[in-house]
Design a protein that fits this description.
With 304 residues, the chain is of the alpha+beta class. Helices cover 45% and strands 15% of the residues.
């Protein structure tokens, strides 16, 4: 088989990985063929033992879809590994993974003993950059994972936002928008990661100052399935100090702190709770019930 380095890895990654084409011919067409006895040279594609490869300690990705790994492993069993992984030598008979952990995991799952690999010379910072850039270029990466990778490159590689943009082939405004996501409350970041809310929703919420306001809008988005456009309208209404229309009526304005208390109580009692707040801190809490059994349930929750 003839292995040949592919181009088109992206401006940032190809700049870190030397673009020199290296070709190695093997007479055996099996990807599990035994490697040559000599030590693989840096800069080439070699077939190396899987059990001599340790994972990249700088790998930004920590979660891998098990079903997707199994599907890739099945494909490797049938077709072999098409795209080599990238490693650096860490000893006479050991290598450290730079990029391709998903391919390595799937190869192990497929029972592959030897794997084609680019052998590179790289220091720790280059290792980090290569791993992060390769990860950023993945299409299935969610926005929070991209943002965290950007932040790591800034913090650990001492890059400015403009330099980071050049490395990952993105303009500064795009980099800034991703980094701003990390300023949101953790619960909203988790929702973005899990695709509960979109990047568009997040950008709208970021237009508000204060965690309480952001959490309030987030709850409205998730509870009422607001579109990005409706979310932007809600944010503008809050920014302009207007009351918010709900179900055709004007919703009585209460502070976001009280709104959170009201929402928490509604969650606790599993029913709609009304918090009426007057001046000087006076007010009342209304907990409706629909039957005697429902009243008994609420009284039990109140430890009555």
């Amino acid at each position: 088989m003839t292995y040949q380095k592919k181009t088109g890895l992206g401006k940032g990654l190809s700049a870190l990985l030397d673009d020199t084409k290296v070709v190695q011919n093997n007479n055996n067409n099996n990807s599990q063929a035994e490697p040559k006895s000599e030590i693989p040279a840096a800069g080439g594609i070699n077939t190396i033992p899987v059990d001599q490869i340790e994972v990249n300690p700088y790998q930004p990705r920590t979660e891998f879809d098990e079903q997707a790994l199994k599907e890739l492993a099945d494909s490797i069993k049938l077709q072999g590994l098409i795209q080599p992984i990238t490693v650096r030598k860490s000893g006479n008979n050991s290598y450290q993974l730079i990029s391709g952990e998903r391919r390595l995991r799937a190869s192990r799952l497929a029972g592959i003993d030897h794997i084609p690999a680019y052998v590179r010379t790289a220091n720790d910072q280059q290792m980090l950059e290569m791993g992060l850039i390769e990860n950023i270029q993945r299409e299935d990466l969610n926005s929070i994972e991209v943002a965290l990778s950007f932040q790591r490159m800034i913090d650990e590689c001492n890059l400015k936002q403009e330099e980071l943009g050049d490395r990952v082939s993105k303009n500064r405004s795009t980099v800034t928008n991703y980094l701003r996501l990390l300023k949101l409350p953790p619960v909203i970041q988790v929702a973005i990661r899990d695709n509960v809310v979109s990047m568009g929703h997040a950008k709208a919420i970021l237009g508000l100052d204060g965690v309480d306001k952001q959490l309030y809008v987030f709850q409205e988005v998730t509870n009422n399935h607001l579109s990005v456009r409706k979310t932007e309208e809600l944010v503008r209404a809050i920014q302009n100090g207007r009351s918010v229309k709900k179900e055709g009526k004007e919703k009585e304005a209460i502070s976001f702190q009280y709104q959170k208390i009201q929402d928490d109580l509604a969650s606790k009692f599993d029913t709609r709770v009304k918090l009426k707040v007057q001046s000087a801190g006076k007010g009342a809490i209304e907990i409706p019930f629909v039957s005697d059994d429902d009243l008994s349930r609420i009284l039990e929750l109140l430890d009555w």
